Amino acid sequence: MSSKAEPDVVLIGAGIMSATLGVLLKKLQPELTIEIFERLDVIAGESSDAWNNAGTGHSAFCELNYTPEKPDGTVESSKAAKIAESFEVSKAFWAYLVQEGYIKSPESFIRSVPHISFVWGGPNVTYLQQRQKALEGNPLFKGMQYSEDHATLAKWMPLVMEGRDPEQKVAATRMEAGTDVNFGALTRQLCTYLYNQKGVKIYTAHEVRDIEQEEDGRWSITVKNATTGKKRTLKTKFVFIGAGGGSLPLLEKSGIPEGKGFGGFPVSGQWLICNNPAVIEQHAAKVYGKAAVGAPPMSVPHLDTRVIDGKKALLFGPYAGFSTKFLKHGSFMDLPLSIKYYNIRPMLAAGFDNIPLTKYLIEQVRQSPEGRMEALRAFVPQAKMEDWDLETAGQRVQIIKKDPEHGGVLEFGTEVVSAADGTIAALLGASPGASTAVSIMLDLLNRCFKTQMNSPEWKAKLKEMIPSYGQKLADTPGLCDEMRSWTGQVLKLNVEEEVGINN
After folding, report:
1. Rounded CA separation 133/129 (Å)
2. CA-to-CA distance for 232 and 297, rounded, in angstroms?
3. By its UniProt entry, which PANTHER family does this protein fall under (predicted)?
4. CB crowding 60-71: b at 16 or more within 10 Å, else e
5. Spatial strand order in the sheet of 200-203
6. Which end of the chain is more exposed for a tag (fewer CB within 10 A), N or C?
7. What is the mean predicted confidence (pLDDT) over 127-155?
């Protein structure tokens, strides 16, 4: 059955990426017609869901994997600076939407929570010292505190320091400007705004089964209604595939040359979630450590204060695992069916080069409850098993891509893949995706809507939505301070009020 309707834009997946792109497009060009298709019967039920997403508000304040140590012992900080800049762009866009009344109650999706990096052992302390030096001159990291003093650290994170060996060499950095973001709640607010706009339709329990480009350049989309089993076909000028782990199979079906050679490596996760209110109240920060050797970046251990649906929670993890599913609610055939003649070489090459990762994942899958508690006690020395429950977290698909030298490489991050004609784009990868969604979608618009992005009308609207648009906060200290002050006021970010810190 074919639909006569021909929306200007089709967005696949109702997560933070599609929601962000939809709002941007609707604000930039209100007459655009948009249809959004989500395979689940809920909005933001996969990677954007609060329990499936770390929700750190990835700003590179505490995530040590964004500041790798170089062979000479110094620290590379360019990636951290880029991520910190991107998160400020996201906050500015959200603040604009709140200020204009397009979305409500910022406290429902963003809270102030200090971000702390914590390490122990001589070499790691030296590394953190070098990291502090590398970041301290950047205005995006203004206010970062460093300490090796046990008493000071006990004030910053009492649960982490209680019962710790007083002779253990430790160090930490602390950023009060850190946040906790519920991307599920934010996505649902963005989708509510879109739903109420003329020319926008959102369909849940609708799965896109096929994508094919017509001779005239338009895309033919086949969608199945999971409730009735009926299929329909519609045509559109532009498609965005923002389906999380489900993006790769759909990109492959599109047949665009730019998608050839990409593969996916799925990594699952689990959390230990605290069930003891007294323990939860002792902690009010996001404390990130260093990843184990061979561990993927998404497995960086962290003790994480979260506020989900107005209730404070405490999580530790994630513990990595392996599943052939590309989505939490996916199929075990996802990985086998994604293997094609054009990506098998990159996937085999990446697998050969990442044997330590495979070994690490096997060890994680076989880990006993006692083993998980041992990892937790490195952060919480006096943790008791009865205070923590194991829950399944989200599913991530890391990118495998062609590489001239190695045949294929496994990459950690996000990547936009777009056709040369700009009529289709897909987002692959994982962290820090959600936190940098606005910058990622601006990059997509520059690729696929180049003419409009260069027009005075769109530039003016973007400047209205993101006052720092076109400028780098890292190069403009005064502007960085001004933007943080404005977004903090609009988004009601206040450490003392939100998480009860009084030190």
Report:
1. 6
2. 40
3. L-2-HYDROXYGLUTARATE DEHYDROGENASE, MITOCHONDRIAL
4. bbbbbbbbebee
5. 200-203, 34-37, 9-12, 238-241, 424-429, 414-418
6. N
7. 96
Q: Count CB-CB contacts under 10 A for residue 228.
A: 8
Task: State the angle between helix axes of 437-448 and 78-99 in degrees (0 to 180), rounded to the nearest 10.
Answer: 90
* pLDDT band with cut points at 50, 70 and 90 for residue 334: confident
CA–CA separation, 61 and 84 (whole Å): 7
Distances (CA, A) of 8 to 2, 27, 199, 205, 238: 16, 15, 10, 21, 6
The Cα 394–Cα 54 span in angstroms is 9
Q: Which two tokens stand for residue 141?
A: 């990291």
- All residues at 6 or more sequence positions from 258 whose CB lies less than 8 Å from its CB, including other chains: 417, 418, 419, 420
Give which of 276, 80, 288 is closest to 180, Cα–Cα. Answer: 288
What is the SS3 assignment for 329?
coil
Q: Which residues contact 429 (CB under 8 A, 6 or more apart)?
A: 397, 398, 399, 411, 412, 413, 414, 415
Q: Please give the structure tokens belonging to residue 441.
A: 């979608």
**Cβ–Cβ under 8 Å, residues 12 and 18:** yes
pTM score, whole prediction: 0.91
pLDDT in tens, 67-121: 999 999 899 999 999 999 999 999 999 999 999 999 999 999 999 999 999 999 9
Determine contact, residues 8/21, Cβ cutoff 8 Å: no
Domains of the chain (ranges plus CATH)?
Answer: 9-451 (3.50.50.60)
Instruction: Write the CA distances from 75 to 26, 68, 414, integer angstroms.
Output: 41, 6, 22
Q: Measured at the alpha carbon of residue 301, what is the angle toward residues 59 and 309, in degrees to the nearest 5?
A: 65
Main-chain dihedrals φ then ψ at residue 110, nearest 5 degrees: -140, 135
With CA atoms as reference, report the closest residue to 239 among 45, 421, 15, 24: 421
Contact 390, 369 (CB under 8 A): yes
Question: Under 8 Å CB-to-CB from 266, ≥6 apart: which residues?
Answer: 245, 322, 323, 324, 325, 326, 334, 335, 395, 396, 397, 398
What residue spans of 428-500 are helical by DSSP H? 437-448, 450-453, 456-465, 477-490, 495-499
201 within 8 A of 34, measured Cβ to Cβ: yes
305's enclosing H/E stretch is strand 302-308
| pLDDT tens readout for residues 187-204 | 999 999 999 999 999 999
Output the pLDDT for position 339: 74
The residue with tokens 């070489």 is: 345
Report the amino acid identity of residue 300: V
Residue with tokens 């914590």: 118
Exposure letters 362-389 (e unless 16+ CB within 10 A, then b): eebeebeeeebbebbeebbeebeeebbe
Which residues lie below 8 Å from residue 289, measured CB to CB, with a gap of 6+?
64, 117, 118, 119, 300, 301, 302, 378, 379
